[in-house]
Amino acid sequence: MDSRNKLEGTPATVDAEIESFFSSAPPLKNRNGGPRRVVCVTSGGTTVPLEQRCVRYIDNFSSGHRGAASTEYFVKAGYAVIFLYRRGTCQPYCSSLPDDPLLECFESTNESNIQVLQEHSEAVKTAIVENRDAVKQGLLLKLPFTTIFEYLQILRIIALPMCNLGPNAIFYLAAAVSDFYVPWQSMAEHKIQSASGPLNMQLAQVPKMLSVLRRDWAPLAFCISFKLETDSKILLEKADAALKKYNMNMVVANELSTRKEEVVVVTSEEKILVRRNKAMGVDEVENPLIQLIVERHSAYMESSNQ
Ligand code: PMT
């Protein structure tokens, strides 16, 4: 029977054949022959629009530094990174550039020539080369979002195919995601008028997608969520609760004012303090953090494949 005829069977037979094709296919490999590891890094805060033709919105704080720096260390460790980031937030390989690189790094020497200013040339060169290398090797794909609607829809689009990677996939959910939103159908279409007096608005709760991600979208993936608090007294307790409630492999707990200095990685067995240490040449906390995650993920892959 030729393959065309075969695919014309009943829907159930076709489904079974498709399933059998994918489940028996050899796993995808990296160029170096090792199993392909993919991490989805989410970064930056989501907005909640108050009007469909949005003039005003509620925002969640995140500069995107954690996600951008972590992406660099994951790429260095050989992971392919899907970087799901809020438009306008920090980008991988750009941390040494000034705020407005286009205007601050270049000068116009005559009518047609533009050159990089000497003091920024090293930083510009490194950013361009490292970013291009990562993209060329297929290790970096950047996808932007702004609103909570875009973020969760794109996350789901990414998660479904990543499910096929089983334990080789990581979700590193550093984005600061809105807990409340205005459902699209009940949102004002046009700019809300201030002449109508004080604004009363009831926000609906955004479903916690961590449970859905773990249960339905990517049940075998290594899942890392974050917990941010401003009160250090409740931080570890909340991180522990999130670990159990959403069945995460790790929760990275951080306090707003010290988030660049230290984080605590909470797992079911231990709580590990990870610190940056300038004197020891560790100038970003993401460096030891990603090292620890790669170690734990390798062990997880090994135990899952036994
Ligand atoms: O970007 P920086 O300035 O460098 O700062 C980094 C950071 C402090 C933002 C980051 O390290 C961090 O902690 N991010 C998570 C912020 C947070 O508190 O998220 P949350 O409590 O809203 O959510 C906790 C987890 O649930 C997150 O992993 C989030 O992706 C997830 N979530 C949240 C809401 C929701 N409806 N569904 C979710 O899945």
The whole-number mean of residue pLDDT values reads: 93
Radius of gyration: 22 Å
Assess the beta-strand content as a share of residues.
15-25%
The level 1 CATH classification is Alpha Beta
Number of helices: 9
Regions with pLDDT < 50 over 5+ consecutive residues?
A: none
Number of strands: 14
CATH superfamily: CoaB-like
Cofactors and ligands: ligand PMT
End-to-end gap: 37 Å
The number of domains is: 1
Could you describe the largest sheet, including whether it forms a barrel? 8 strands, mixed
Shape: globular
Structural class: alpha/beta
Helix content: 25-40%
The third-level CATH topology is Rossmann fold
Please list the strands of the largest sheet in the order they lie side by side: 7-4-1-8-11-12-13-14
Order of helices and strands: HHEEEHEHEEHEHEEEHEHEEEH
CATH-derived architecture: 3-Layer(aba) Sandwich
Organism: Ficus carica (Common fig)
Protein name: DNA/pantothenate metabolism flavoprotein C-terminal domain-containing protein
InterPro entries: CoaB-like_sf (IPR035929), DNA/pantothenate-metab_flavo_C (IPR007085)
Pfam family, one: DFP
How is this structure best summarized?
This is DNA/pantothenate metabolism flavoprotein C-terminal domain-containing protein. 37% of the residues lie in helices and 21% in strands. The protein is an alpha/beta fold and 306 residues long.
What features would you describe in this structure?
The chain is an alpha/beta fold and 306 residues long. It has one domain (55-305): 3-Layer(aba) Sandwich (Rossmann fold). It is built from nine helices and 14 strands. It has helices spanning 3-7, 11-24, 65-76, 101-105, 118-136, 148-162, 209-217, 232-245, 286-305; strands at residues 38-43, 47-49, 57-59, 80-86, 106-108, 114-116, 140-145, 169-173, 180-181, 204-205, 222-229, 250-255, 262-266, 271-275. The strands form four sheets. An eight-stranded mixed beta sheet has the order 7-4-1-8-11-12-13-14, sandwiched between helices. A hairpin with a 5-residue loop joins strand 5 and strand 6. Helix 3 crosses helix 9 (286-305). The radius of gyration is 22 Å and the shape is globular. It starts with a helix and ends with a helix. 28% of the residues are buried. The mean pLDDT is 93. It binds ligand PMT. Ligand PMT binds at residues 62-66, 173-177, 179, 206, 208-210, 225-228, 254, 259.
